[in-house]
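We emphasize that the prediction below concerns an isolated chain of 113 residues; any contacts that depend on oligomerization or on bound cofactors are therefore not represented. The input was used exactly as deposited, without trimming of termini.
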Amino acid sequence: GLIAFDMEDIERIRKEDPRGKIILVRPDTVPDDIPLIFNCDGLITAKGGATSHAAVTAAGLGKVCIVSCKSLVVVDAGKRCTVNGRDYVPGDILSIDGNSGLIYEGSYEIRID
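Result of the prediction step, given as a token string:
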């Protein structure tokens, strides 16, 4: 999906590509982030755990979610993040596997075994 950090990014991406998938990237989530979570297709957070607000909310909404990603550094004010030393900005493409917790650069087809 296309990376978004806030509602402004989500709205811009939806306008440019209405059927595109959106991956919300957050340092962690708080209850005020619910509208963001509703409007994304997947979520990655740097903090949290299996029972964190992000994990529970995302799972309840059927969203793919990776929480407590130790290799993720989010600079919220700068709308950028780093994963394993690689920098990403809004609109960059990542794929996430919620089962394994892996993040891949680029877009990959979903395969269900």
